[in-house]
Amino acid sequence: QKVKEESVEFLIPSYACQRRTSLDNHNTNFTDALSHLAENAELNNEDGRAVAFRRAAAVLKALPVKVTSITQLRGLPCLGEHSQRVIKDVIENGVSSEVESTIHSERFKALKLLTGIFGVGAKTADRWFKEGIQNLTQLANSGHDLNRAQQAGLEHYYDLNQPVTKAEAEAIGDIVKKAVLDVLPGSEIILTGGFRRGKITGHDVDFLITHPDEGKEVGLVSKVVSWLTARGLLLYQKNTRNSYLESEDGPAQPPSNMDRFERCFSIFKLEKKEIPNRNWRAVRVDLVVSPISQFAFAVLGWTGSKLFERELRRWAGQVKSMSLSSHALYDNKQCKYLRATSEEEIFTHLGLEFIPPSERNA
Ligand code: GTP
Ligand code: MN
Ligand code: MN
Q1: Ligand 1 probe mutation, 287, 309, 360, most atoms within 8 A of CB
Q2: Distance 194 CA to ligand 2 centre (A)
Q3: ipTM of the complex
């Protein structure tokens, strides 16, 4: 599958995990349009449609040139009829009329605003929208009982919708590292998520923690959370215990792509002297603890992008008859787990060329 640019042809394989996708996107006009339609589909709980648009956008992100003519798309994978129509519209008119009417619709605007509240998903937002709630004031006046996450989300709405910078992520990293080493010397902590892929801003900061002695890491999240809480550094936190059990006779199958690590979804209070009157801002922080034996899988699973992860699991299942999670890789033919101590080894098990984090921006 190739794209023609003059006499040059580029090979674009169909799974995003077979390709390199840097942050240098030459086709933002198309990928933004397709991402809006994907987002709209997600807000409507149309998962299949959303993934189709995300895959189409990812193919365009991987192209080394800017697309200017529809004929360049011939032979490219993952571009369905609908996506091609959108791309054609953008080429010919600068914008897609479907995208324009979608993003300016009352429904899209309201659902986006409401799901922008930490703790509010598409289903809740849709229910509220159907009751006539379209903004934060209407929500606050509606008399709805908000759960603890949503209350915190509403309270810190502005801050949590401001991009987090790399510098802020590093400042939080320094503090969390101090906490981790204080409660369990010898622990290791890495920045994962978008920042590990080289993004300069993010919607949150993701940390993965482990300890070289298997088992020592048990209970680490709550100790770190206590350390941070004692110093007034958390505005919200929700802890989850590790619920992953590797069974003897088959792969552990989490119900979705949610993993079962010990983790904490939190809102961090980051000191910022330059913010007047307040001297701090709120930042979403995810803390995940993995046993060292699963660490490579956890690093791979928490580095993203979301589509890259989804494609890795699809490749594993469809092409290799394997089940990949953030805990392990199971070979369904050999009926055994495949061990790995590095991301490189996992790619090798999967029969894929190694793609470094900075090229997983699908
Ligand atoms: P921004 O935060 O928006 O900059 O992008 P991001 O890529 O960091 O996204 P996010 O923080 O949402 O997720 C980071 C990575 O962790 C992504 O690859 C997700 O697929 C992964 N992730 C998020 N939640 C879970 C989860 O519950 N289980 C697993 N296994 N992975 C998750
Ligand atoms: Mn993130
Ligand atoms: Mn996250």
Answers
A1: 309
A2: 5
A3: 0.97
